[in-house]
Amino acid sequence: MKRKICFKSALMILLCLSLSGCADDEILEEIPRDFTVVSSPLGERKEEEPSDNSEVEKDISGEKAERAEDAGFLREDAFEYARWNLNETEQLWYDDIKKILGTYSREIRLNEAGLTAGYDETDIDRIFQYVLNDHPELFYVEGYSYTKYTRGEKTTAIEFSGTYSVDRENAESRYEAIEAAADEILSGLDANADQYTKVKYVYDTIIRNTDYELSAPDNQNIYSVFVNHLSVCQGYAKATQYLLNRLGVECTLVLGTVDTGEGHAWNLVKIDGSYYYVDTTWGDASYRIKDSMAGSKVTMPEINYDYLNVTTAELLKTHTLTEGGVPMPACVATEANYYSREGALFSGYDREQMKSLFDRAREQGRDDVTVKCADKASYGQVVEALVGNQEIFDYLGDAGSTVAYAQNENQLSLTFWVTNE
Fold first, then answer.
1. Are 218 and 142 in contact (CB under 8 A)?
2. What pLDDT is recorded for position 216?
3. How confident is the model at residue 41, as a pLDDT?
4. What H or E segment, with its residue span, contains residue 266?
5. What is the pTM of this model?
6. pLDDT (tens digit, 9 = 90+) per residue, 302-320?
7. Residues near 52 by Cβ (< 8 Å), separated by ≥ 6?
8. CA angle, corner 230, sides to 99 and 361, nearest 5?
9. How many other CB atoms are found less than 10 A from the CB of residue 151?
10. What is the dihedral of CA 144, 149, 152, 156, to 10 degrees?
């Protein structure tokens, strides 16, 4: 039987350099800031607005009390990682903004303690983003506006309003569709699954059910993933966060850039007490190479695991965290890394380990296998043995006449799969 290796190294180089999948405006312009500043009405019209603001505060308190019974769109299972990184006074504004956005409210005054502490509109912008980082269920939030009241040079009050992409009735309808889709996805997971299995399941499922599309509508929020099945990096990341939070896995949104300079979004997850980075968008291995392979019978495996539960050191090879963003922990654990967990991490060319890996893939009905090496020396050994000496066929047997492979030299990984070419 004729046996052939189809070399796809160039494709993987494209994967390494271009898998960001995010244009600059996806992050930099994702949340329009519409600032409305009204100067000094309290100081100029004392007869209408008492200096102690008692009547105004009474009205606001009543409105907040009425809404207390309405949780709106906020989910109690959201892990508020960004909030934990705020001080006590900042958290008061965070809670105000969260409640306003979650209940579709407008023109609600932020807690006076923030003004007393010296916070201003720049802090509103920062805390607003923190709220969105923690709450992917606020899919309908488009931005915000605020009105600042001053007396002389002193700010006496700030009213905050959310701005929304759809009306509340439409948002409720969309939320029901999101919940139904999420319920269906989560029904396919074993209720006794451990945290690693939950994270991998969500990673796999979102990739399989979503196509990357820059022009997709609503692509900065979870509706695009769960209902339209077309999205970009922010949609992928928020959908990952939403599902994992529902599964009781701590997960938050991370914003930054990649080595091409493009804005990007991914996730921080906590598995068995340790933090890892997950980039579901970059796990979608095929979307960036489909055009370059047009007309070819060779098809890449759908999922790339190079960014499932990685350390900070691994992430920073290609990603950069936003300066001044939510502080991130040092991710140093490797126990829940995909390759470590699946027995696919090689510290040298080990034939017994390689055979076990391919045998397990065959038992699971998979026709592709990815291996990762701990260092460049090990990587060289594996490439020479499997490709140079064509020992890959020792593990595949007569499963097919042609084997394609892709290599990611940056991450020291190789993927092999049988093709019909």
1. no
2. 83
3. 28
4. strand 263-271
5. 0.82
6. 899 999 999 999 999 999 9
7. none
8. 110
9. 16
10. -110
